[in-house]
Design brief:
The protein is an alpha+beta fold. The chain contains three helices and seven strands, in the order H-E-E-E-E-E-E-H-E-H. Helix 1 packs antiparallel against helix 3.
Length: 239
Amino acid sequence: MTPEERQPRPLWVDSLILGFAGIVFVTLILLGNWQMRRLAWKLDLIETVEARLTEDAVAAPLRVEEPEDLAYLRVTATGEFQHDLSRRVKALTDLGGGSWLMTPLKTTNGHIWINRGFVPSGSDLAEWTMPEGTIEIEGLLRPSEPEGTLLEKNDAEAGRWYSRDVIALSEDTGAYYPAPYFIDADHYGDRESWPRGRLTVVNFRNSHLSYALTWYAMAVLFFGAMAWVVQDRIKASSL
């Protein structure tokens, strides 16, 4: 078939392809813009948390609607530990594998779960500090970690805990009026004693800028490719 005999592609098909390409291009730009907004949010969060880490401790709030808004706030709480209700939550730290020791602190307004710190696998209960009576705890406020991890779910009946879910822990132990957060406590006792507190890792992954640049680069490349296709189509139709 000669070029003269070849049927030209309908205009509506070209319009449809061009419209779809426009949607793809705009979507790539919007994704880049969204990552830039996420970058601004992340930088603001990092600045807020860094400021909180250096501020003086305040009394732990009784009731909190959004614990995430107070993450890493340095707080104090006064009460009595209920060591018999402690639970161990699987943990991996710079000290090796083991558990976080979660113990409810009984206060005048209910319970606040305290992450007393890290205990290594195989450690003896007799080696752990067990403060009795009224005690003041200082540490960082952390939002509850519901259900478990991506690969492992909490199983209260089997006694397997993979995240610090204060609601599930309270239901399992009978702790009443639990705060919707826990406190990562500072270290208590001798320097080498267990549990080892103050091991909170404050490290925010921030890749939003690289993601944004990737989306923008894809948009530029896509625009260039479409411009070449359109130019080639116009040239072909003029023959």
